[in-house]
Amino acid sequence: MSEVIHHPRQKRRRGLLLIGVLIVLVIAAGLWGISVGAVAIPLDVIVNTLFDLDGEKQSYIILRSRLPRMVLGLLAGGSLALSGAIIQAVIRNPLASPNIIGINAGAALFALGLVMFFPAVPQVWMPLAACVGGVAAAGFVIIVGHYRNLSAIHLALIGVAVGFVFEAGVDYLLITASDSESSAPMIWLTGSLWGRTWGHVAIAWVPLLVLSAIALMLSYRLDLIALGEGTATGLGLNVPRQRMLLLLVATLLASVSVAVVGVMGFIGLMAPHIARRMVGGSHRLMLPVAALVGMLLVVLADGIGRAIAPPIEVSAGILVALIGAPFFVYIMLTTASETES
Question: DSSP class of residue 309?
């Protein structure tokens, strides 16, 4: 009996210990990311600069270039991971993610359209345009799925089709644009933190932190939904309304992230799966772990992209895709084998 009583407490302690380890890894990855690039910076110089200590400093490179892109990578990585975890739980499909159901493509199309058709518009409007695109894509998928009563796999397929349509719109805008107009958007669409400044952090940190806090507060509702619609309804949960609220939060998280760092499609797919393998399916613990894993993936990808062949940078989104594609195949194979058994 005592083992049964203490088991949840031990599981909670292990989860908190894992969160602590992940926080340390994220900090270490961030410091390493700041140190690599066209100009290598020793750790002591980074510490002197960040904490304004006596000794050698590199204020311009660290404070104006690498630190803001690291902060933005943390915000976007955590937000995309939370978005993917919510979508997988609500749709009850392990293959679902912001990219799979078309949110990323919709957000990219509207943000790109704003930049190319209204270049004089301030950057602060980009997250709003991306949110409109993401909501449009997700809304279409959700409405079709609701009225046609589609299964989870069919809902994902509809999302893939919607994503292709929006991606075709992105391709059309890039093809019809001049070289000077399309060069910067092309880099952005690969999922790059190149050229990100404190200005980008300023327009993203408030909505992303607020939405992330909302997602974490709603984690217990994901656990109720996972029990099944009948059980959740019996416990007093308005399942359709909560699904819409959770999907809206997930859509906005992904859309704002796309607006500032471009498309990193596989973060929302990989991070929740990795977190689920670490701590199980309880969303109260799984969501913060997924967010930290997403942060770690983006910061490491950005650092590796700058360390491969400086001063040339490989976009973080490209490196994430190279890892994410075989990971997606692995998920499909394991999901199919579990279904057959």
Answer: B
Q: Which residue has the tokens 């859309």?
A: 255
User: What does the alpha-carbon distance between residue 188 and residue 12 come to, in Å, rounded to a whole number?
Assistant: 40
The answer to whether 283 touches 220, Cβ cutoff 8 Å, is: yes
Check which CATH number belongs to the domain holding 301 and give it. 1.10.3470.10
Look up the pTM and report it. 0.90
- The set of residues, in sequence order, having a beta carbon less than 8 Å from that of 337 and lying 6+ positions away, is none
Question: Per residue in 304-330, pLDDT tens?
Answer: 999 998 888 899 999 988 888 788 787
Dihedral of CA atoms 144, 147, 150, 152 in degrees, nearest 10, equals 70
**159 close to 102: Cβ distance less than 8 angstroms:** yes
pLDDT tens-place string over residues 91-115: 887 778 888 888 999 999 998 888 8
What's the one-letter identity of residue 13? Answer: R
What is the C-alpha separation between 147 and 145, in angstroms, rounded?
Answer: 6
Structure tokens given for 218:
């709603």
- Cα–Cα distance between 309 and 58 in angstroms, integer? 21
| Per-residue pLDDT tens over the stretch 238-295 | 888 888 899 899 999 999 999 899 888 789 989 999 999 899 888 999 999 999 999 9
Q: Domain residues for 73?
A: 2-340
Q: What are phi and psi of 26, to 5 degrees?
A: -65, -45
Instruction: Quote the number of domains for the chain.
Output: 1
